[in-house]
Write a structure and sequence with these properties.
By secondary structure, the protein is mainly α. It has helices at about 5-10, 15-35, 40-45, 50-55, 55-95, 100-105, 115-130, 135-160, 165-170, 175-185, 190-205, 210-215, 225-230, 240-270, 280-285, 290-310, 330-360, 365-370, 375-380, 380-395, 400-430, 430-440, 445-475, 475-480, 490-495, 500-529. The protein contains 26 helices and no strands.
């Protein structure tokens, strides 16, 4: 179809409404329904609910697990925000040797299977600090796991801030710290909110890595997702414990939605800049404070995030092996292919959905969609795999290939990562720029291509990286829909479970190297955009 004809068709309201309807329908069918399909299981077992609520032991386990999960998620989110904000500033505003290398390296923990990451972090902190506290061990794991989500979102958000505003403030005599507090951070607030939601949801839903970490340190405490995993594996009275796991998942989903919605409302009304400007802000804008801030930020990212995450790859025993593990390259190829397919579909359907939500805030439908986008992020991965397996068992029965079923299953928990980042970028974009283009005669497609897309590209690139790495490192959902799937995360987790740590180390190194090359290429493409 001729490009000019496509631009003319973009002005047709009926066609635009049809396209958005298709996008919303895709979201409901492939993203929202699979994770919440477990509610149909609960409805079908309604008459058996008294068996769960009549058990004091089950109720007490639920209470302690829920409180521990929320305490960890809140702590992790606060640590991530405090640590990632100055690091995002360093990577965006500073120039130093190996900057691009470090920038790419900080994304690699997202590409590791969570179970392997949980083992790596637990072993690192056991050897370095003999850390055996369940709370702080899981916090250390979740920080290493979720820090890249916060960092990537903040970088995209800060990159979208127009430098003219900062230059104007500096011209008027404001010090850099004052400019950041009164100009940059208020404009970047949507990205801060989005990053906080992603980190909170990631921590709250994490299962595999948490279970491995608690097992390594021999802790008896359990988070909500881990308790669900334990209940699913109980050999006797399985139906009661499966039902309890479904109820606990439903409680986590509903309560998390309420918390995240409240957070979004409160954060949207909260004003970051303080009217008063203190005299010490001048000192905070100069050396040695700025140098100390940058040094601490880089040190945190290396010592708390990278070193624990890469410990399994540096495990000394793997040096004894000179032969590449059999089947690894095929598993890595399958994982990369699935991640690429998933990410491409997310881009085609997720960007239009983000535009619909961000540009129609007054609509009841889009407000509901904005809240529903968070659901796949907060469903515990054990419950997610259980729910998705129920839903996609029909797809397997229809004769769909394993590759297709796994890709469709991955869309349900990766598309929200892209959508949240793009929405944050759109919320920072001044609508008057698009209005001006339309006033000058540009149709919707040309306005998007020439104005909107270049300005929101940092959010799209960040969301693409998060979506790709999340799919690349997923284990639980993959096994749930295709138990004998040959993907890199499944392969590595099997090696860890068999205590073949040396071979797992080789596999992690190869996976990290390939992932690093792909992520670097993606970032180069993003800089070109």
């Amino acid at each position: 179809m001729d490009f000019k004809l496509r631009e003319e068709l973009s002005s047709n309201k009926v066609l635009r409404a049809t396209w958005y309807s298709i996008v919303v329908g895709f979201f409901l069918l492939f993203v929202l329904i699979p994770p919440i399909y477990l509610f149909t299981y609960l409805v079908g077992s309604f008459d058996k609910l008294p068996l769960v609520f009549g058990s004091v032991e089950i109720i007490e386990d639920m209470k302690s697990a829920i409180s521990l999960s929320y305490a960890i998620a809140a702590t992790v989110t606060i640590i991530d925000l405090i640590a990632a904000l100055p690091m995002a500033w360093v990577l965006l505003k500073k120039e130093f040797r190996l900057k691009r290398f470090l920038d790419t390296l900080l994304d690699l923990p997202m590409a590791l299977p969570t179970s392997a990451l949980g083992f790596s972090v637990a072993m690192f902190w056991l050897r370095v600090a003999d850390l055996r506290s369940a709370f702080w061990a899981v916090v250390a794991l979740h920080v290493a796991m979720s820090y890249p989500y916060m960092l990537r979102t903040l970088i995209a958000s800060l990159k979208s801030v127009r430098t003219q505003y900062e230059i104007a403030a500096r011209t008027l005599g404001a010090h850099p710290f004052t400019v950041a507090k009164t100009v940059t951070l208020p404009i970047a607030k949507p990205g801060i909110i989005a990053g906080s939601i992603l980190c909170f949801a990631k921590s709250l839903s994490e299962t595999g890595g948490t279970a491995v970490t608690l097992s390594v340190i021999k802790a008896i405490e359990r988070t909500g997702p881990v308790l669900i995993k334990v209940w699913k594996s109980v050999p006797e009275e399985t139906e009661v414990f499966l039902l309890a796991g479904g109820i606990l998942s439903a409680i986590l989903i509903v309560s998390s939605l309420a918390i995240l919605y409240t957070f979004r409302v409160v954060a949207a009304r909260w004003k970051i800049p303080l009217k008063r400007i203190w005299s010490w802000e001048k000192d905070l804008s100069r050396k040695p404070f700025t140098s100390m801030r940058d040094l601490l930020s880089i040190s945190f990212s290396i010592l708390v995030v990278l070193a624990p995450s890469m410990f399994i790859a540096l495990f000394p025993l793997w040096l004894k092996f000179e032969v590449m593990p059999r089947g690894l390259l095929a598993a890595i190829w399958n994982s990369i292919l699935i991640a690429l397919i998933t990410t491409l579909i997310n881009l085609v359907t997720g960007v239009p959905l983000s535009i619909l939500i961000a540009r129609s805030k007054s609509s009841v439908l889009t407000s509901v969609l904005d809240a529903l986008v968070n659901i796949p992020l907060i469903v515990p991965t054990t419950a997610l795999g259980f729910s998705i397996s129920l839903f996609w068992s029909k797809g397997i029965a229809l004769g769909l290939s394993d590759l297709t079923v796994i890709s469709l299953a991955h869309i349900s928990f990766t598309q929200p990562l892209l959508v949240r980042n793009v929405i944050a970028s759109l919320e920072q974009l001044d609508p008057s720029l698009e209005d001006t283009a339309r006033t000058l005669g540009a149709n919707p497609l040309k306005t998007f291509r020439k104005i909107t897309l270049p300005l929101i590209s940092p959010g799209i690139i960040a969301g693409t990286i998060l979506s790709f790495t999340r799919s690349l490192g997923e284990t639980g959902a993959t096994i749930s829909v295709v138990p004998k799937a040959l993907t890199a995360p499944v392969y590595i987790v099997e090696l860890v479970s068999e205590r073949a740590y040396s071979v797992a180390g080789i596999s992690c190194v190869i996976l990290l190297l390939i992932s690093g090359v792909l992520l670097y290429a993606l970032k180069r493409a993003g800089r070109g955009t």
